[in-house]
Design brief:
93 residues, alpha+beta, five-stranded antiparallel β-sheet, 2 helices, 40% strand
């Protein structure tokens, strides 16, 4: 079981600037087997051939702690399972 920490980055001209942060958390136990499999593929590099995105595209930084230590991947929005993107909330800082 893992807790995924998700942060939305970038977008059109860094939308939101320094005063907006978009992040969330999801427990892997709350996800379906297919969602967990899709996330595991992101961490294993199985989707690396699809990691390119436009310069104004949103990226997501996904982190987790495991027995191997802390792991982080950064992927374009179109590869992130909807269960993770729904967990992200915008907050003013």
């Amino acid at each position: 079981m893992a807790i995924y920490e998700i942060e939305k980055l970038g977008g059109i001209a860094g939308f939101g600037g320094a005063h907006l942060r978009s992040r969330g958390k999801v427990d892997s136990a709350a996800l379906s087997a297919d969602e967990n499999k899709a996330i595991e593929a992101l961490f294993s590099g199985a989707t690396k051939r699809s990691l390119s995105s436009g310069s104004d595209a949103f990226m997501f930084r996904i982190s987790r702690s495991s027995s191997s230590g802390n792991e982080t991947v950064q992927v374009p929005e179109h590869l992130v399972p909807a269960a993770l993107t729904r967990a992200v909330q915008d907050e003013l800082i």
